[in-house]
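Researcher: We plan to redesign the surface later, but first we want a full-length starting point. Tokens attached.
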């Protein structure tokens, strides 16, 4: 069971016996009828307003400095920027309203004002939705003295503290159940926000603790509550150094605390959406687009993030926030305009609301050029809002991948594979849907011509899909049916090759004989730590007549003796099978990882030749467009029409984002008979012709983005 299945199967508060009587009393006070919660059915599959209503969020991370602004003026700046939903810091550590909850420290410049309340009232008058942002990660000395039991403790008993003299509460204590709930309830009762967001919901190395020198692992909280909870779960004391058992304990602690908050909100203020930055026991899932460090650019990050959220969990909040600053340690270093626009294009094409995180407010944005660009973008979205109501991905290729291991965290190697596959499909203009949920296979026979399975992906339903006529391509993951086990694996840092034995099977590879398929390649993890990995090749029994075969690593040095031990083999590097009415193909090596790491075009050619062969050369989109154009095909069920989004990524070069190069005369030939096509950016109808179940059209000019409405 992965974390999402667990989440979907869990309802109700898990009041464990480690929850104190005081906390149970507080929870009962805030949760009338909480005894019935566990029996309440899971929420239905209705789409949420945030996925249906064209939404433009101004995500305002308040500083004390900003409280000196006039709230009405902030709302006026939001109106001017066409923001129709404000997410504003309410409190948690520092209150931006006159909180009466003990130890909820007021922002020093608040001095009796109700900044949050006045801003919320002005926002409502302007028909702007309100969200309340909380961050509980830093508490005062007074709170520590009054409630020493709430806090994260090192081995010597000292509390985790930071440079500003604040202290970090622990997720397993009563802090969130008592203090957290009181603060959230106060804000909910007074201001009725439609969204609640909690930031920094963590008890880990990311907590703002100064490292204790005598603690072998300062990331482990050793408070009484953690000690007792761990003993209860495992019958032994907390480990010296964190391990898998500790991670599971911490996850359970975090899940219980977040589920309790989710249930409190649902019970008392139904309809409010709850998002937790670090826990999935909530109504949604958010990702962040940030300026990456060094060479970690992942061109399709916003695309793939939103695509995966919306395909995997269509009933949940799916939101990609463009972070307007470079990092939490450089908040005045701003994301460049062209980079911001590319993230926005990708997010709205795949069905996320627009969301931009300000340091402070639009009034205090220090880069006016970025603010102007943002205003123009939001104005376009507002003027064309009909394009951005509920959109459903119409792609006929489904990429199934390993679920995230925690919100916004993925395992390095499967993620590398998926990035490569996503890039190869997108560069060849294949619309693609990405899912980490087996639920996506439920209607696969109707929706998809091809399912691509990568390492760690859920495979429930794939066999039935293929037996009934579907096609599946397995990458570096053995099909769970109709396959013997591999004879052995080649795990060698030297390069192995595949040899093209049947050139007719791979029309893109004319003139090519060998491609690298195993050996070392460098992979980058999401935290930016470089690590060298070996790509493996799995040896299966010989197949006479195989179109692609394995060539083992050879002598490569010195050049004078290179390749004198080259041996042709019959070891298949591509294995195909008929299964029922369908067909599967299996690459026993990581072509996706190779492409992500090396970007060698012949790997992409080999991959798309295999895909074309599986789908009978009947691509959903054929086009002469440059490979840097991303095409996203979406459907608007309530408007009975489709939208082809074209995103011009040609301005991206290494880790730089220039203006995209204008591209002309883009011919497209689409599966399906459409009778009209309107290019909304160009403001022009495009001529459309129909032949043999396909539609032919030409876009004269593409600058950054185009949305072609097809009906
Ligand atoms: Zn603890």
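Model: Full-length starting sequence:
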């Amino acid at each position: 069971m992965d974390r999402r299945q667990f989440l979907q199967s869990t309802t109700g508060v898990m009041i464990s016996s480690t929850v104190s009587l005081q906390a149970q009393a507080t929870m009962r006070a805030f949760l009338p009828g909480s005894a019935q919660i566990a029996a309440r059915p899971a929420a239905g599959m209705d789409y949420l307003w945030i996925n249906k209503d064209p939404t433009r969020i101004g995500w305002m991370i308040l500083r004390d400095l900003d409280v000196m602004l006039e709230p009405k003026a902030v709302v006026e700046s939001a109106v001017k920027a066409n923001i129709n939903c404000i997410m504003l810091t309410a409190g948690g550590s520092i209150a931006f309203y006159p909180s009466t909850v003990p130890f909820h420290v007021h922002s020093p410049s608040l001095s009796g004002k109700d900044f949050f309340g006045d801003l919320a009232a002005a926002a409502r008058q302007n028909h702007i939705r309100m969200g309340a942002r909380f961050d509980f990660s830093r508490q005062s000395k007074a709170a520590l003295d009054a409630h020493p039991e709430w806090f994260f403790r090192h081995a010597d008993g000292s509390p985790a503290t930071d440079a500003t003299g604040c202290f970090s509460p622990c997720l397993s204590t009563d802090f969130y159940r008592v203090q957290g709930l009181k603060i959230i309830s106060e804000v909910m009762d007074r201001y009725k926000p439609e969204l609640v967001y909690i930031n920094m919901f963590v008890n880990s190395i990311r907590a703002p603790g100064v490292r204790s020198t005598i603690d072998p692992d300062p990331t482990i909280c050793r408070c009484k509550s953690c000690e007792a909870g761990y003993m209860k779960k495992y019958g032994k004391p907390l480990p010296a150094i964190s391990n898998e058992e500790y991670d599971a304990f911490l996850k359970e602690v975090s899940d219980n605390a977040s589920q309790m908050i989710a249930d409190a909100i649902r019970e008392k203020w139904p309809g409010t959406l709850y998002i937790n930055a670090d826990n999935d026991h909530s109504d949604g899932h958010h990702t962040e687009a940030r300026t990456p460090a060094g060479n970690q650019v992942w061109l399709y990050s916003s695309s793939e993030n939103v695509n995966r959220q919306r395909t995997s969990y269509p009933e949940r909040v799916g939101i990609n926030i463009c972070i307007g600053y470079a990092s939490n340690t450089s908040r005045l270093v701003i994301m460049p305009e062209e980079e911001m626009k590319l993230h926005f294009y990708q997010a709205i094409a795949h069905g996320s609301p627009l969301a931009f995180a300000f340091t402070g407010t639009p009034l205090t944005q220090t880069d006016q050029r970025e603010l102007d660009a943002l205003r123009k973008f939001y104005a376009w979205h507002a003027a064309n809002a009909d394009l951005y109501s509920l959109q459903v991905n119409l792609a006929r290729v489904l990429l199934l991948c390993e679920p995230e291991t925690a919100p916004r965290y993925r395992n390095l190697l499967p993620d590398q594979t998926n990035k490569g596959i996503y890039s190869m499909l997108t560069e060849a203009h294949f619309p693609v849907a990405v899912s980490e949920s087996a639920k996506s296979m439920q209607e696969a026979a109707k929706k998809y011509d091809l399912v691509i399975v990568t390492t760690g992906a859920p495979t429930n339903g794939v066999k039935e899909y293929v037996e009934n006529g579907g096609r599946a391509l397995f990458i570096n993951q053995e099909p769970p049916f109709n396959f013997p086990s591999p004879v052995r694996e080649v795990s060698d840092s030297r390069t192995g090759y595949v040899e093209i034995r049947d050139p007719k099977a791979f029309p893109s590879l004319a003139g090519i004989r060998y491609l690298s398929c195993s050996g070392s390649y460098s992979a980058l993890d999401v935290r930016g730590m470089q690590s060298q990995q070996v790509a493996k090749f799995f040896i299966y029994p010989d197949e006479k007549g195989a179109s692609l075969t394995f060539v083992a690593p050879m002598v490569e040095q010195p050049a004078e003796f290179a390749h004198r031990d080259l041996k042709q083999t019959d070891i298949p590097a591509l294995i195909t099978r008929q299964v029922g009415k369908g067909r599967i193909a299996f690459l026993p090596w990581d072509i996706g990882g190779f492409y992500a790491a090396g970007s060698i075009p012949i790997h992409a050619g080999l991959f798309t030749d295999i895909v074309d062969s599986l789908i009978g050369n009947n691509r959903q989109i054929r086009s002469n467009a440059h490979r840097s154009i991303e095409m996203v095909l979406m459907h608007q069920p309530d408007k009975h029409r489709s939208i082809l989004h074209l995103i011009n990524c040609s301005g991206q070069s290494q880790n730089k984002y220039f203006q995209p190069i204008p591209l002309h005369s883009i011919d497209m030939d689409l599966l399906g008979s459409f009778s009209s096509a309107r290019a909304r950016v160009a403001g022009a109808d495009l001529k459309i012709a129909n032949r043999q179940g396909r539609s032919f059209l030409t876009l004269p000019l593409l600058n950054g983005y185009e949305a072609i409405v097809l009906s």
